[in-house]
Structures are given as C-alpha cells and as structure tokens.
Amino acid sequence: RALIFPLLIREGKPTPFSTFVLALLFCVFNGYLQGRSLTTYATYPSGWLGDSRFITGFLGWLIGMAINIHSDHILRNLRKPGETGYKIPRGGMFEYVSGANFFGEILEWFGFALACCTIESLAFALCTLFILGSRARQHHK
C-alpha cells in the first residue's frame, strides 16, 4: 500500500515533511524487522507452504489486499475533479463497514501474521489493528 496508493492519488492535501519522514522511517524499520525475523530467526518445517496455517494466512493477506486496493479506488473516485464536500463511500466492502480500506489492511496483516507465525508479524498486526481501528472509529463517527 505504501507504494501503490501514493502513485494513484490524483489530487490531495499537502503532507507535512515531518509526517512523510516519520512514515518512511516506520515503513523502513518495520520492513527490516519483518524481513530480519523471517530470514534469520524463523524456521519452518518442510512442507510449510502446504500447511493450512500458511494457506489460510496467505488467502487472508490476498483478500485483505484486494479489499484495501478496491476500497482505495472507491475513495479516490468519490468526488469529481474540483468537487468538495463530504461524501459517504458506497460499494464494495463499504456496504458492510464504514472503514473498508482500514478493514482490508487489518485483514492483510493478520493474514501475514498467520502465514508467518512469528511474534514480529503478530506484533505488527496488533499495532495495525489498534492504530487503524481507532482511525476507523473516528471516520465512522
């Protein structure tokens, strides 16, 4: 999402440089922790890619990513160029949850955590749940 979403934004509000730097540092640090835990500390039995935990986690990650990308598409196209004002998104998972993009990302990271079965991946999934869950609640209100 950190790579796809910014490339697809048509217009947006300026982002303070400090916010950009903090987000970049967070993504780099988290990517390092996830990569390091998977390449250095995690050990998997042969046949792990066929294990039900990996398959279920991978499918959760894939479905979450699809929900996230589709929800972002709906949000990007919510207003016509030059149009302002509040609009409620419709379609996709927005028919079931008001923060469909947040739901998709949370599902992605819990799927990743299940597929990897590492404490680092679970920690990130929980952080995502708490951070995006609170943002989703704010957006819903």
| Overall morphology | globular
Beta content: under 5%
Find the count of extended strands (DSSP E, 2+ residues).
0
What percent of residues adopt helix (DSSP H or I)? 55-70%
C-alpha termini separation: 25 Å
Features:
141 residues, mainly alpha, transmembrane, transmembrane helix, membrane, microsome
Q: Could you characterize what this model shows?
A:
The chain is an all-alpha fold and 141 residues long. It has a domain at 46-140. Helix content is 67%, strand content 0%. It contains 5 helices and no strands. The protein has helices at residues 4-8, 17-41, 52-76, 100-116, 119-140. The longest helix is centred in the first third of the chain and has 25 residues, at 17-41. The model has no long low-confidence stretch (mean pLDDT 90).
Task: Describe the structure concisely.
Keywords: Differentiation, Endoplasmic reticulum, Lipid metabolism, Membrane, Microsome, NADP, Oxidoreductase, Transmembrane, Transmembrane helix. The protein has 141 residues and is mainly α. The chain contains 5 helices and no strands.
Provide the fold topology.
Elements: H1 4-8, H2 17-41, H3 52-76, H4 100-116, H5 119-140
Helix pairs in contact: 3-4, 4-5
